[in-house]
Each structure stands twice: as structure tokens, then as C-alpha cells.
Write a structure and sequence with these properties.
alpha/beta; binds acetyl coenzyme *A
């Protein structure tokens, strides 16, 4: 069976930033409280008129440019998002239209903050099942600021906007003697448990006719995140006959530095091998992992051939891990 691997990464963050001190002018909070409880210092906020598909297209163009491919070679586009431009058509088909990407099929994946790892796993499976796909574009894009209740201090401090993208290549379309021969998405485990009340929006299309605002039991989500992500990583290691020391880098969903720290401590992993963008980006939901991955590739100089883990948890609850050799 063929493999697929991440060929390139890209990202897009809105120009405007919102600091903790600026939020403290809107609700009763402080820079110190937000930094101590979450590790967040600022977040990027989309301008009025800026759409999720705009951020997604910029991130995609960035990844396509680095992959040095033509947009016409892309056979599949998946956008992971909970904040699409419209109820339909999908954000992915809007991205397809804006990119003038004629030879792809496109659809959205909605798995909240786990959307990107779900989408990467689906792209890998479709590439394995369909020899026609040479390149897949997988994007996580969100404008969380539009579904945040800006009067609720317990949630509004946590989220930000942005998009990250990867180009995934089918190894069936590579010369196996090239440097690509060891690269690949090695395994994934994905879960959901139907625990739908701890983290949700207050409305939706068929219930209230609008998107609703974010509601969350923060303590409960925190506990679930640590337990479920630790178990998911342990399962991935066992399945692949690896030890935690074999992992070169970890890209966790960027929700809270304390969640990340607790998982790393439980596993005996090193924080130095963990990408941390939550301080600058806050929680960008499905965009957080591709944004952190692009940051890690550029700033932490992730090497081709190194072994990495992507882990995420989000509303649903949905969660899981993807193991890959970059
Ligand atoms: N500023 C100041 N005080 C606040 C704020 C704020 N922004 N928000 C809540 N408080 C107060 C509360 O009212 C409470 O006051 P009280 O003791 O008088 O009742 C106190 O701070 C403690 O509140 P807790 O909710 O218990 O604080 P906690 O230490 O659990 O931190 C947080 C809250 C940061 C939300 C934490 O629970 C968390 O990170 N949970 C994970 C949830 C998460 O990251 N969700 C993101 C989406 S899901 C995902 O991506 C996995």
C-alpha cells in the first residue's frame, strides 16, 4: 500500500493582534491571570470583512509555493473548520474557487479542535485508496472571534483566528530512491465519545438559526484533555513499538500551556521538543496544529526524516494522535 507524507507547510495570521491588557479593558480580567492560567499573551483577530476562506487561501498559497507545485496538480482539498464562511457551499469549495484549483474534489471536516488531525488522516486514507491523487491540500482555518461571547471572561480570553495548511504528497508519485523514501504518515488513532455538553456553542442552524456562542466547562475539559491525550499517545507508541524517547518533536493542539505541560510531565517527555505557539496565537481550534507545525518547521528547524506526533482534542469530545516521519 502506498504512503503519503507532508511535503510543505504554510500559515496565515490576521495582521491585527489583541493583547491580554486590551481584553482587560473589555471584561474583568488581567494579563497576569490569563498568562498564569493559560500561557496566552496575545491572539490575532480577523478584520471585519476578512473571511475564514481568505485566511485558508493565504495559508494554502504559502504551502503550495514552498512545495514548488502547480495548483492544478492538487487532487484533493480538505478544510477543517468550525467557522466556515457559509452554511453551504463548503469552505473547501470556496477555497477551491479562489485558488482556481480545477482538478481537485473538495469538502470540509468538522471535528472542532481535532479537525486538522481528522483531515490529515482522511487525506492519507484517500490517497492510499485513490492513485489519481498526487497532492492533497489539507487546511485548518478558523475565525473563532466571531463565535466567542466577548462578555464571557471565562472563554473570550482563550481564542484567536488564523489558518495553517500542508501539502501532502502521495509516495506512489515519487521516485522511491529519493530522499522521500522514509517520510510518511505512519499511523493515526481518532476517537470521539459523544460528551457534547462540556464544550459547545449555544446555538446552531437547526436549533436557533444562528451559529451561537462558545460555552465551556473549563475544568472538565482540562481534565479530559490531559487524560485522553496521554492515553492516545501511549496507544500510538505501543502500536508502533516505540518509546517516548524515540519521538523527536510533539505538536500539540494549542489550547493551554498547562494542559501541554501536564501531558509532557505524565509521559516523561522534554518540553524542549514541544512546539509552543499558544502564547502568540491562543487557541485557533482546527488551525492551531498546522500553524504550530509551520512555526516548528521554520523556527525549530524540524529535520526531514525526524519522527513527530500531532495530538489534538476538541468539542464532541473528539481527540487523537497522528504519528509521522517528516
Ligand atoms: N480572568 C479572571 N478570572 C477568571 C477568568 C478570567 N478570564 N475566567 C475565570 N475566572 C475566575 C473564575 O470566575 C473563578 O473564580 P471563583 O473562584 O471566584 O469562582 C476562578 O477564576 C477560577 O476559575 P476556573 O475556571 O476554576 O479556573 P481554571 O484554573 O480552571 O482555569 C481555564 C480556567 C483557563 C479555562 C482552564 O480551565 C482551561 O484551560 N481549561 C481547558 C479548556 C480549554 O482550553 N478549552 C479550549 C477549548 S477546548 C480545547 O481546545 C481542548
Amino acid at each position: 500500500m502506498s504512503r503519503s507524507f507532508i511535503l510543505s507547510t504554510g500559515s496565515c495570521l490576521p495582521k491585527k493582534t489583541l493583547s491580554n491588557n486590551e481584553i482587560a479593558l473589555m471584561v474583568e480580567t488581567s494579563d497576569e491571570w490569563i498568562r498564569q492560567r493559560t500561557g496566552i499573551t496575545q491572539r490575532h483577530i480577523a478584520d471585519e470583512g476578512e473571511l475564514t476562506s481568505d485566511l485558508a487561501v493565504n495559508a494554502a498559497e504559502n504551502a503550495i509555493e514552498k512545495a514548488q507545485i502547480s495548483v492544478n496538480e492538487v487532487g484533493l482539498i480538505i478544510v477543517a473548520t468550525t467557522t466556515p464562511d457559509k452554511t453551504f457551499p463548503s469552505c473547501a469549495t470556496i477555497v477551491q474557487s479562489k485558488l482556481k484549483c480545477k482538478n481537485a474534489f473538495a469538502f470540509d471536516v468538522q471535528a472542532a479542535c481535532s479537525g486538522f488531525i481528522y483531515a490529515v488522516t482522511i487525506a492519507d486514507s484517500l490517497i492510499k485508496a485513490n492513485n489519481r491523487i498526487k497532492y492533497a491540500l489539507v487546511i485548518g482555518a478558523e475565525i473563532m472571534s466571531r463565535i466567542v461571547d466577548w462578555k464571557d471572561r471565562s472563554t473570550c480570553v482563550l481564542f484567536g483566528d488564523g489558518a495553517g495548511a500542508v501539502v501532502i504528497k502521495s509516495a506512489a508519485h515519487c521516485n522511491e530512491t529519493t530522499e522521500h523514501s522514509t517520510r510518511g504518515i505512519m499511523s493515526a488513532n481518532l476517537y470521539s465519545d459523544g460528551n457534547v455538553d462540556v464544550l459547545c456553542t449555544s446555538g446552531g442552524i437547526s436549533s436557533t438559526g444562528d451559529s451561537g456562542k462558545i460555552c465551556m466547562n473549563g475544568r472538565e475539559v482540562f481534565k479530559c484533555a490531559v487524560d485522553k491525550l496521554t492515553a492516545s499517545i501511549e496507544e500510538t507508541l505501543k502500536y508502533n513499538n516505540l518509546k517516548i524517547a524515540d519521538i523527536d518533536w510533539l505538536i500539540p493542539h494549542q489550547a493551554n500551556i498547562r494542559i501541554i505541560g501536564a501531558i509532557v510531565k505524565k509521559l516523561g517527555f522534554s518540553m524542549e521538543k514541544v512546539a509552543n505557539t499558544v502564547d502568540q496565537h491562543a487557541n485557533t481550534s482546527a488551525a492551531s496544529i498546522p500553524l504550530a507545525l509551520d512555526y516548528a518547521v521554520q523556527e525549530l528547524k524540524i529535520k526531514p526524516g525526524s519522527l513527530g506526533l500531532l495530538i489534538a482534542i476538541g468539542a464532541g469530545l473528539t481527540w487523537g494522535s497522528v504519528l509521522l516521519r517528516y
